[in-house]
Design a protein that fits this description.
The complex is a heterodimer.
Chain A lengths: L3 E4 L2 E4 L5 E7 L12 E6 L6 E5 L3 E2 L7 E6 L2 E6 L8 E7 L6 E2 L3 E5 L1
Parallel strand pairs in A: 2-11
Antiparallel strand pairs in A: 1-3, 3-8, 4-5, 4-9, 5-6, 7-8, 9-10, 9-11
Chain B lengths: L2 E5 L3 E2 L5 E8 L8 E6 L5 E7 L6 E3 L7 E6 L4 E6 L8 E7 L13 E5 L2
Parallel strand pairs in B: 2-10
Antiparallel strand pairs in B: 1-3, 3-8, 4-5, 4-9, 5-6, 7-8, 9-10
The chains are: A mainly beta, B mainly beta.
Chain lengths: ~110, ~120
């Protein structure tokens, strides 16, 4: 199975400041169709996960433009340009290229 | 609006069986693969199983292969997960999720809780 490794696992942030989460895969994520199926999800306490970013850098429906994704090969990054209070929770990267699809361990974002 | 409503979660003894259901609406169900993803209490997310739009192709995590069976009824817009030989480590919130956008789970249900305990 492809191992997804996130860092940091805990991220205290200041409101209005930027934040960044890294995700590394144990093998390349380019599918046979040429797409890289690297996704990011946000999960608030007691809620279901919500899709933020798909195919490395495409924002999901209704996702604010302060969220952006980048990367290639085996190294990927989620950035929040200015953290807002509603951004707290756990962020997961997930690869949808190789079955079984696998998730990172999660990064817990909290306000300082 | 896409809606996914899971049901069937319950308390079951180790070795027991359970069938989960997921009623879908707001999209053309038969056109898209569907997934089951689980989350043990206080833990991360794990893809459990997936099924193609026509139900012909199925995928399973090694941890559930041979014990769980995914299926769908496109006439009823419903996804199923038949779970057998349940273990304590299968205890989790089980989410159904769509794959309308290829390569990702773009919509999720609210989950149904499976508790395995004697």
């Amino acid at each position: 199975d492809v191992v997804m490794t996130q860092s940091p696992l805990s991220l205290p942030v200041t409101l209005g400041q930027p934040a960044s989460i890294s995700c590394r895969s144990s093998q390349g994520l380019v599918f046979s169709d040429g797409n890289t199926y690297l996704n990011w999800f946000h999960q608030r306490p007691g809620q279901s996960p919500r899709l933020l970013i798909y195919k490395v850098s495409d924002r999901g429906s209704g996702v604010p433009d302060r969220f952006s994704g980048s990367g290639s090969g085996t190294d990927f990054t989620l950035k929040i340009s200015r953290v807002e209070a509603e951004d707290v929770g756990v962020y997961y990267c997930m690869q949808g290229t190789h079955w079984p699809w696998t998730f990172g361990q999660g990064t817990k974002v909290e306000i300082k | 609006e896409v809606q996914l409503v899971e049901s069937g979660g319950d308390l079951v003894q180790p070795g027991g069986s359970l069938r989960l259901s997921c009623a879908a609406s707001g999209f053309t169900f038969s056109d898209h693969p569907m997934h089951w993803v689980r989350q043990a209490p206080g833990k991360g997310l794990e893809s459990v199983s997936a099924i193609s739009g026509n139900g012909v192709t199925t995928y399973y995590a090694n941890s559930v292969k041979g014990r769980f069976t995914i299926s769908r009824d496109n006439s009823k817009n419903t996804l199923y997960l038949q779970m057998g030989s349940l273990r304590v480590e299968d205890m989790a919130m089980y989410y159904c999720a769509t794959e309308v956008v290829p390569g990702t789970n773009d919509h999720w249900g609210q989950g149904t809780l499976v508790t395995v305990s004697s």
